Amino acid sequence: MILNRATLAIVLAAGLAATASAAEPPGCKSQDQTTERLQPCNSMFSRLVGEWEGQIQTRNSDGRVSTSMASVSNRLENNDKSLVSCFEGFAFGRPVHGASVIRMNPGAQAERSWYTNLTNATMTMPMKASSSENSIAFAGEGVDPSTGKTVSIEQVLRVVDSNNYVFESFSIESSGEKVMLMRLEMSRLPEGRLAQAAEKFSDAKLLAKVRLNSPAQTADANGH
Length: 224
Known about the structure:
Layout lengths: L4 H19 L20 H5 L1 E10 L5 E13 L4 E10 L2 E12 L3 E8 L4 E6 L8 E9 L6 E12 L2 E9 L5 E11 L15 H5 L9 E3 L4
């Protein structure tokens, strides 16, 4: 069969479109119940949306590290300008859970509000300038769950690929040394499966602790 240039161009265009569609990573669809539109997949938020399982590591005051199974559920809110997360797992045999909101502010400056039952306090931190396309870092002051003391905290979300990401929370010593407080290594669940952490989205009190509209600050569990 002989193809003229116009026919060949149509065939090639169709093939490229099919390849692009197949290569699109999962999790790029908003989970807001009022909209089902695709989000730009080069956005950090859209790459983190979805259901995840993996492991959680936490450190206690003796320096011992606990490793356990964990899950995370990430959803878009506020016209896709906020990424809301819930997580659950275990730390030294005890249940641990929490929530966070990363919100984009005017000028594309992001900040993160973070709560965990390990400290029973909410911390809101601005994004660091060192953040990049595949990594967002936040810094501020918060409670070290291993000691109960207020320390400098740095948190980093790093996308490894479309199916894996890492979250790390560090305390910053006076010497500048970073000490791991918590680490989550997450892998995306198959489409249609919900993480156990998704159940936390029905906990209005938990989510109220991170859905703050105030400037960067540290608040207690009631948002005060």
